[in-house]
Specification:
The protein is an alpha+beta fold and 295 residues long. The protein is built from 10 helices and 4 strands. It has one domain.
C-alpha cells in the first residue's frame, strides 16, 4: 500500500467505523434494555440518535476535547521560534496547510497531532520534548506528526477514541443498573440478561482491541511517511531512542489520550508477549527504530 492509497483508506475507514459503532451501540442498548425489562425498541431508537450525535460530535470536536484534556496552550512564532519554524517549513515541504501549534507544560518528552482533516488540525509538543531533542530530531518528530495529519490518522483515531469510550460507559452503566436494581421481573429476561452481561464484559474489550490495533498500524505508516518527508530517517530514529531512554513520568497524558502521542507515555518497554502486545497503544520502539534505520 502506497501513501496515497493509505490516505484514501483512512477516509473510508472513518465512515465505516462511525457506522459500525452506531450499530454496536444500538445493539448493546437493545440487549441491555431487554435484560432489564424495559421498552427495548424505544430505547434502541434513542440510542441510535445518541450514537449518531456522538459520532458527529467526535468528528467535529475530538481535537478540542484532546487539547482540553492535556491542558495544551496555543503558541505564536515568537513564543517558541525553532519549534514553530520547524512545523512551518515541513508544512511547506509536504504541501499541507499550516496547523495550529500548541505546547504542553510537561517535562516528559512527547508530541501528538489532532483534528478532523489537514485544514482543521493541531500539532502539540511537550516542553520536555523541546528541551531534550536537537533540531534534526525535532524535525523527525514533527514530520511524523504532520504525516498523521496528511494521512488522516488524526481524524480516524479521534473518532475511534471517543466512540470506544462511549461503549465502555454504556457497558458500565448497565452493570451498575443491574447491580443496584431489583430483578422482580427477571424470569422472562434470563437469556437476554446472560447475553447482556457477556456483551457488557466483552464489548469494551473488543472495541479497545480494535482501537489499539488501528493505532499501531498508523504509527508505522507515520514513521515511514515522516522519513519520506525529511529524507533523513535517522533524525526520527535518534529521537525515538531518546524517548526510549527517558522515564520522566507524564503530568498531563491519560489512558484515553495515550494512543495519540508519538510514544506511549506510560510504557516504552519492548513488548515480548503477544497477548500483552494486543493491549499496547504503540509498536515497540526498538522495532520502529530498527525499521527506520533499515530504510
Amino acid at each position: 500500500m502506497n501513501i496515497y492509497s493509505a490516505i484514501s483508506s483512512n477516509k473510508n475507514k472513518t465512515w465505516v467505523i462511525m457506522v459500525l459503532f452506531v450499530v454496536i451501540i444500538t445493539t448493546l442498548v437493545y440487549v441491555f434494555s431487554k435484560a432489564l425489562g424495559m421498552g427495548s425498541l424505544g430505547l434502541a431508537g434513542v440510542a441510535l440518535i445518541i450514537a449518531g450525535i456522538m459520532s458527529i460530535g467526535s468528528y467535529y470536536y475530538s481535537d478540542k476535547l484532546v487539547l482540553a484534556t492535556t491542558g495544551a496552550k496555543e503558541i505564536k512564532k515568537n513564543d517558541f521560534p525553532q519549534y514553530y519554524r520547524t512545523v512551518e517549513n515541513l508544512c511547506i515541504a509536504s504541501g499541507i496547510s499550516m496547523p495550529r501549534v500548541y505546547i504542553v507544560n510537561d517535562p516528559s518528552p512527547n508530541a501528538f497531532a489532532s483534528g478532523r482533516d489537514p485544514k482543521h488540525a493541531v500539532v502539540c509538543a511537550t516542553t520536555g520534548l523541546l528541551e531534550k531533542l536537537n533540531d534534526v530530531e525535532l524535525e523527525g518528530v514533527i514530520a511524523h506528526e504532520l504525516s498523521h495529519i496528511k494521512n488522516y490518522d488524526i481524524r480516524l483515531m479521534g473518532v475511534v477514541a471517543i466512540l470506544v469510550g462511549f461503549v465502555a460507559i454504556l457497558s458500565d452503566l448497565f452493570i451498575r443498573t443491574t447491580f443496584y436494581s431489583r430483578s422482580d421481573d427477571s424470569r422472562g429476561n434470563t437469556i437476554f440478561l446472560v447475553l447482556a452481561i457477556v456483551f457488557a464484559i466483552l464489548s469494551p474489550i473488543a472495541a479497545t482491541l480494535i482501537q489499539l490495533a488501528v493505532s499501531r498500524k498508523r504509527e508505522y505508516l507515520a514513521d515511514a511517511s515522516g522519513a519520506l518527508l525529511t529524507r533523513y530517517p535517522e533524525g526520527l530514529a535518534s529521537a525515538l531512542e531518546k524517548l526510549a531512554r527517558d522515564h520522566t513520568p507524564p503530568r498531563t497524558a491519560s489512558n484515553a489520550t495515550a494512543h495519540l502521542f508519538i510514544e506511549n507515555p506510560f510504557d516504552n518497554r519492548k513488548v515480548k508477549i503477544f497477548f500483552t502486545g494486543l493491549f499496547n497503544t504503540h509498536p515497540p520502539l526498538e522495532e520502529r527504530i530498527k525499521i527506520l534505520r533499515a530504510m
